Amino acid sequence: MPLLRAWNSDPYSLAAIWQIGEPEDFFVRETGLTLPDIKSEKRRIERLAGRFLLKHLQSDFPLHGILPDGEDKPRVPDNRYFFSISHSWPYVAAVISPYAEAGIDIQCWRPRMQTLRHKFLSQEEQLLVGDDDKRITLAWCAKEAAYKWQGRRGVEFSEHLALTRFATEADAALSPGSAAVFRGNMPEDHLPGTTAFHMLPPHVAGLPSGYEENAGHFFDIEINLKLSNPEKLLLLYGIVNEYFAFSIVRNNTQFLNLELT
After folding, report:
1. In the predicted model, what is the mean pLDDT of residues 94-111?
2. How many CB atoms lie within 10 A of CB 14?
3. What is the mean pLDDT of the segment spanning 164-177?
4. The pTM is what?
5. Residue 102: which of 31, 12, 230, 232 has the closest Cα?
6. Would the pLDDT of 164 be above 80?
7. 3-state secondary structure of 154
8. How far apart, in whole angstroms, are the C-alpha atoms of residue 147 and residue 141?
Protein backbone atom coordinates (compact mmCIF):
# COMPACT_ATOMS: atom_id res chain seq x y z
CA MET A 1 0.00 0.00 0.00
CA PRO A 2 1.80 3.17 -1.17
CA LEU A 3 0.72 5.50 1.63
CA LEU A 4 3.75 7.73 2.13
CA ARG A 5 2.49 9.53 5.22
CA ALA A 6 -0.67 10.32 7.16
CA TRP A 7 -0.43 12.88 9.93
CA ASN A 8 -2.23 15.64 11.81
CA SER A 9 -1.10 18.71 9.88
CA ASP A 10 -2.45 20.88 12.69
CA PRO A 11 -4.63 20.09 15.73
CA TYR A 12 -7.76 20.36 13.57
CA SER A 13 -6.79 18.62 10.32
CA LEU A 14 -5.67 15.24 9.00
CA ALA A 15 -3.51 14.99 5.88
CA ALA A 16 -1.89 12.30 3.75
CA ILE A 17 0.29 11.75 0.70
CA TRP A 18 -0.20 8.70 -1.53
CA GLN A 19 2.01 7.39 -4.32
CA ILE A 20 -0.20 6.06 -7.11
CA GLY A 21 0.67 2.54 -8.16
CA GLU A 22 -2.77 1.01 -8.61
CA PRO A 23 -4.78 0.59 -11.81
CA GLU A 24 -7.87 2.63 -12.55
CA ASP A 25 -10.31 -0.14 -11.63
CA PHE A 26 -8.86 -0.27 -8.09
CA PHE A 27 -9.91 3.31 -7.40
CA VAL A 28 -13.31 2.83 -9.05
CA ARG A 29 -13.93 -0.20 -6.87
CA GLU A 30 -12.70 1.39 -3.64
CA THR A 31 -14.55 4.68 -4.08
CA GLY A 32 -17.77 3.42 -5.65
CA LEU A 33 -17.54 6.28 -8.15
CA THR A 34 -18.07 6.07 -11.88
CA LEU A 35 -15.27 6.87 -14.28
CA PRO A 36 -14.95 10.65 -14.73
CA ASP A 37 -15.49 11.98 -18.25
CA ILE A 38 -11.81 12.70 -18.83
CA LYS A 39 -9.99 11.51 -21.96
CA SER A 40 -6.58 10.90 -20.36
CA GLU A 41 -6.39 7.73 -18.26
CA LYS A 42 -3.68 9.27 -16.09
CA ARG A 43 -5.88 12.28 -15.31
CA ARG A 44 -8.82 9.99 -14.54
CA ILE A 45 -6.69 7.99 -12.11
CA GLU A 46 -5.44 11.17 -10.41
CA ARG A 47 -9.00 12.39 -9.91
CA LEU A 48 -10.17 9.06 -8.53
CA ALA A 49 -7.06 8.67 -6.36
CA GLY A 50 -7.68 12.04 -4.69
CA ARG A 51 -11.18 11.00 -3.73
CA PHE A 52 -9.95 7.61 -2.64
CA LEU A 53 -7.49 9.33 -0.31
CA LEU A 54 -10.28 11.39 1.26
CA LYS A 55 -12.15 8.16 1.98
CA HIS A 56 -8.97 6.54 3.26
CA LEU A 57 -8.50 9.37 5.75
CA GLN A 58 -12.15 9.53 6.84
CA SER A 59 -14.27 6.45 6.13
CA ASP A 60 -17.58 8.34 6.23
CA PHE A 61 -16.46 11.07 3.83
CA PRO A 62 -19.41 11.77 1.47
CA LEU A 63 -17.64 11.42 -1.88
CA HIS A 64 -20.88 11.45 -3.86
CA GLY A 65 -21.81 14.80 -2.32
CA ILE A 66 -18.84 16.78 -3.65
CA LEU A 67 -20.04 19.77 -5.67
CA PRO A 68 -18.55 23.21 -6.48
CA ASP A 69 -19.90 26.21 -4.60
CA GLY A 70 -20.56 29.62 -6.14
CA GLU A 71 -16.80 30.30 -6.24
CA ASP A 72 -16.07 26.87 -7.79
CA LYS A 73 -14.57 25.56 -4.54
CA PRO A 74 -15.42 21.88 -3.95
CA ARG A 75 -17.72 21.40 -0.98
CA VAL A 76 -19.82 18.67 0.63
CA PRO A 77 -23.37 19.27 1.98
CA ASP A 78 -23.52 21.47 5.09
CA ASN A 79 -19.70 21.66 5.10
CA ARG A 80 -19.62 18.44 7.06
CA TYR A 81 -15.95 18.31 6.19
CA PHE A 82 -13.65 20.94 4.72
CA PHE A 83 -11.09 19.42 2.40
CA SER A 84 -8.48 20.00 -0.27
CA ILE A 85 -6.88 17.68 -2.84
CA SER A 86 -3.78 18.02 -5.00
CA HIS A 87 -2.08 15.69 -7.44
CA SER A 88 1.14 15.63 -9.41
CA TRP A 89 1.79 12.25 -10.98
CA PRO A 90 2.48 9.85 -9.35
CA TYR A 91 1.59 11.57 -6.07
CA VAL A 92 -1.71 12.70 -4.62
CA ALA A 93 -2.18 14.68 -1.41
CA ALA A 94 -5.31 15.44 0.61
CA VAL A 95 -6.30 17.17 3.83
CA ILE A 96 -9.60 17.03 5.75
CA SER A 97 -10.95 19.07 8.65
CA PRO A 98 -14.43 19.16 10.22
CA TYR A 99 -13.62 22.53 11.79
CA ALA A 100 -11.68 24.79 9.39
CA GLU A 101 -11.03 25.48 5.73
CA ALA A 102 -8.28 23.39 4.12
CA GLY A 103 -5.55 24.00 1.55
CA ILE A 104 -2.85 21.65 0.24
CA ASP A 105 -0.65 21.41 -2.84
CA ILE A 106 2.01 19.04 -4.17
CA GLN A 107 4.15 19.43 -7.29
CA CYS A 108 6.76 17.14 -8.77
CA TRP A 109 9.77 18.75 -10.34
CA ARG A 110 9.19 20.28 -13.74
CA PRO A 111 11.45 22.42 -15.96
CA ARG A 112 10.82 26.09 -16.73
CA MET A 113 9.90 27.31 -13.23
CA GLN A 114 12.51 30.07 -13.57
CA THR A 115 10.78 31.36 -16.70
CA LEU A 116 7.31 31.21 -15.11
CA ARG A 117 8.01 32.81 -11.74
CA HIS A 118 7.09 36.32 -12.85
CA LYS A 119 3.53 35.09 -13.40
CA PHE A 120 2.95 34.37 -9.71
CA LEU A 121 5.74 36.12 -7.78
CA SER A 122 6.16 39.87 -7.41
CA GLN A 123 9.61 41.43 -7.69
CA GLU A 124 9.89 41.54 -3.90
CA GLU A 125 8.82 37.90 -3.61
CA GLN A 126 11.37 36.83 -6.21
CA LEU A 127 14.08 38.35 -4.03
CA LEU A 128 12.64 36.57 -0.99
CA VAL A 129 12.43 33.15 -2.68
CA GLY A 130 15.67 33.30 -4.70
CA ASP A 131 16.64 31.68 -8.00
CA ASP A 132 16.52 28.00 -7.07
CA ASP A 133 13.91 26.05 -9.08
CA LYS A 134 12.85 23.98 -6.09
CA ARG A 135 12.27 27.02 -3.90
CA ILE A 136 10.31 28.66 -6.71
CA THR A 137 8.20 25.52 -7.07
CA LEU A 138 7.52 25.50 -3.33
CA ALA A 139 6.44 29.14 -3.50
CA TRP A 140 3.95 28.13 -6.19
CA CYS A 141 2.69 25.25 -4.00
CA ALA A 142 2.25 27.57 -1.02
CA LYS A 143 0.23 30.05 -3.06
CA GLU A 144 -1.87 27.24 -4.54
CA ALA A 145 -2.60 25.91 -1.04
CA ALA A 146 -3.55 29.40 0.14
CA TYR A 147 -5.74 29.90 -2.94
CA LYS A 148 -7.58 26.64 -2.25
CA TRP A 149 -7.99 27.55 1.41
CA GLN A 150 -9.45 30.96 0.56
CA GLY A 151 -11.70 29.54 -2.14
CA ARG A 152 -12.66 32.59 -4.17
CA ARG A 153 -12.43 33.74 -7.77
CA GLY A 154 -10.58 36.72 -9.16
CA VAL A 155 -7.29 36.07 -7.35
CA GLU A 156 -4.04 37.29 -8.90
CA PHE A 157 -1.29 35.22 -7.30
CA SER A 158 1.41 37.89 -7.49
CA GLU A 159 -0.86 40.65 -6.18
CA HIS A 160 -3.41 39.09 -3.82
CA LEU A 161 -1.42 36.23 -2.23
CA ALA A 162 1.61 38.05 -0.85
CA LEU A 163 4.47 35.97 0.57
CA THR A 164 5.61 37.69 3.75
CA ARG A 165 7.77 34.86 5.11
CA PHE A 166 9.69 32.06 3.39
CA ALA A 167 12.17 30.71 5.93
CA THR A 168 14.06 27.41 6.13
CA GLU A 169 15.35 25.36 9.02
CA ALA A 170 18.79 26.58 8.08
CA ASP A 171 17.63 30.03 9.10
CA ALA A 172 16.85 28.61 12.55
CA ALA A 173 13.49 30.31 12.16
CA LEU A 174 11.07 27.46 11.60
CA SER A 175 8.01 27.70 13.81
CA PRO A 176 8.11 25.14 16.64
CA GLY A 177 6.69 21.78 15.70
CA SER A 178 5.98 22.27 12.02
CA ALA A 179 8.86 20.12 10.79
CA ALA A 180 8.27 17.60 13.55
CA VAL A 181 4.66 17.24 12.50
CA PHE A 182 5.58 16.13 8.99
CA ARG A 183 8.26 13.78 10.26
CA GLY A 184 5.74 11.86 12.28
CA ASN A 185 5.71 13.56 15.69
CA MET A 186 1.98 14.07 15.44
CA PRO A 187 0.33 16.23 18.12
CA GLU A 188 -2.53 14.68 20.06
CA ASP A 189 -4.32 17.88 21.05
CA HIS A 190 -7.76 18.56 19.64
CA LEU A 191 -10.74 20.75 20.27
CA PRO A 192 -12.29 20.59 23.74
CA GLY A 193 -15.47 18.55 23.79
CA THR A 194 -14.81 16.99 20.37
CA THR A 195 -13.42 13.69 19.19
CA ALA A 196 -9.92 13.72 17.76
CA PHE A 197 -9.23 12.24 14.36
CA HIS A 198 -8.04 8.67 14.37
CA MET A 199 -4.25 8.96 14.52
CA LEU A 200 -2.66 6.88 11.79
CA PRO A 201 0.76 5.29 12.37
CA PRO A 202 3.59 7.81 11.93
CA HIS A 203 5.59 5.38 9.83
CA VAL A 204 4.01 3.41 7.01
CA ALA A 205 5.69 1.00 4.63
CA GLY A 206 6.06 2.09 1.03
CA LEU A 207 8.19 5.20 1.37
CA PRO A 208 10.47 5.83 -1.61
CA SER A 209 14.02 4.64 -1.07
CA GLY A 210 15.88 7.04 1.20
CA TYR A 211 12.77 9.13 1.96
CA GLU A 212 12.97 8.90 5.76
CA GLU A 213 16.74 9.28 5.86
CA ASN A 214 16.72 12.29 3.52
CA ALA A 215 13.31 13.80 4.20
CA GLY A 216 14.16 17.16 2.69
CA HIS A 217 14.18 20.81 3.73
CA PHE A 218 11.34 22.31 5.71
CA PHE A 219 10.01 25.83 5.29
CA ASP A 220 7.95 28.13 7.47
CA ILE A 221 5.73 30.27 5.22
CA GLU A 222 3.31 33.17 5.67
CA ILE A 223 0.95 34.54 3.05
CA ASN A 224 -1.12 37.70 3.35
CA LEU A 225 -4.61 37.19 1.85
CA LYS A 226 -5.12 40.68 0.46
CA LEU A 227 -8.65 40.08 -0.84
CA SER A 228 -9.92 39.17 2.63
CA ASN A 229 -11.73 41.85 4.57
CA PRO A 230 -9.94 42.37 6.87
CA GLU A 231 -6.74 40.96 5.40
CA LYS A 232 -5.69 37.63 6.90
CA LEU A 233 -2.20 36.27 7.50
CA LEU A 234 -2.17 32.59 6.62
CA LEU A 235 0.45 30.25 8.10
CA LEU A 236 1.77 27.33 6.08
CA TYR A 237 4.63 24.92 6.12
CA GLY A 238 6.36 23.34 3.17
CA ILE A 239 8.82 20.65 2.24
CA VAL A 240 11.29 20.34 -0.61
CA ASN A 241 12.79 16.89 -1.14
CA GLU A 242 14.14 14.71 -3.90
CA TYR A 243 10.68 13.89 -5.21
CA PHE A 244 8.41 16.94 -4.90
CA ALA A 245 7.57 20.26 -3.33
CA PHE A 246 4.65 20.29 -0.95
CA SER A 247 2.80 22.89 1.12
CA ILE A 248 -0.17 22.88 3.48
CA VAL A 249 -2.06 25.50 5.48
CA ARG A 250 -1.67 25.31 9.27
CA ASN A 251 -5.00 26.27 10.80
CA ASN A 252 -5.21 27.91 14.18
CA THR A 253 -8.14 28.98 16.36
CA GLN A 254 -8.77 32.27 14.54
CA PHE A 255 -9.79 30.32 11.41
CA LEU A 256 -12.06 27.72 13.05
CA ASN A 257 -15.62 27.37 11.80
CA LEU A 258 -16.61 26.28 15.28
CA GLU A 259 -17.29 28.29 18.40
CA LEU A 260 -15.10 27.09 21.22
CA THR A 261 -16.52 27.06 24.71
Report:
1. 93
2. 25
3. 66
4. 0.83
5. 12
6. yes
7. coil
8. 10
